[in-house]
Write a structure and sequence with these properties.
four-stranded antiparallel β-sheet, alpha+beta
């Protein structure tokens, strides 16, 4: 059981009633590892983070904060992506070189509206996304 602690579960694991008992992306602590051993599963996929690896959520949070820029706010996290929204009505300005650089990195992507596209306050603008694999800091 100790060998499971600190590992990241790569998929939902359900109990006998098909309810999610251990969620995808969860870092296993002693309690979750013990619970995992009581569940009915045939195959289990885990990630072992290496020194310097960053878990999906904090990595995506960093990326979304860096991508936000002036006039853009981080709305929140849902399903592996962080939505960003226009803070006010205006024209969206995309830092094209920075966007291109991020999108060349393995496991990361930022999707955005067009440069100089009109946006309304609260409208979703760019969205940052982390893949399920860990990234290096």
């Amino acid at each position: 059981m100790a060998s499971l602690e600190g590992r990241v579960i790569c998929h939902d694991v359900r109990d006998a009633n098909r309810k999610v008992a251990v969620e995808k992306g969860q870092v296993l602590d002693a309690t979750a590892a013990a619970q995992l051993l009581t569940l009915p599963w045939e195959e289990l996929h885990l990630l072992e983070l290496e020194p310097g690896d960053i878990h999906e959520e904090p990595a995506g949070a960093r990326l979304s904060q860096a991508a936000a820029g002036d006039g853009v706010v981080v709305k929140g996290y849902n399903g592996g992506q962080w939505s960003l929204a226009a803070a006010h009505r205006g024209l969206l300005q995309v830092r094209r070189d920075a966007l291109a650089h991020v999108n060349t990195q393995e496991g990361m992507a930022i999707f955005t509206l067009y440069d100089l596209q009109p946006v309304e306050a609260g409208e979703t603008a760019p969205r940052s996304r982390r893949s399920p694999s860990p990234s290096r800091s």
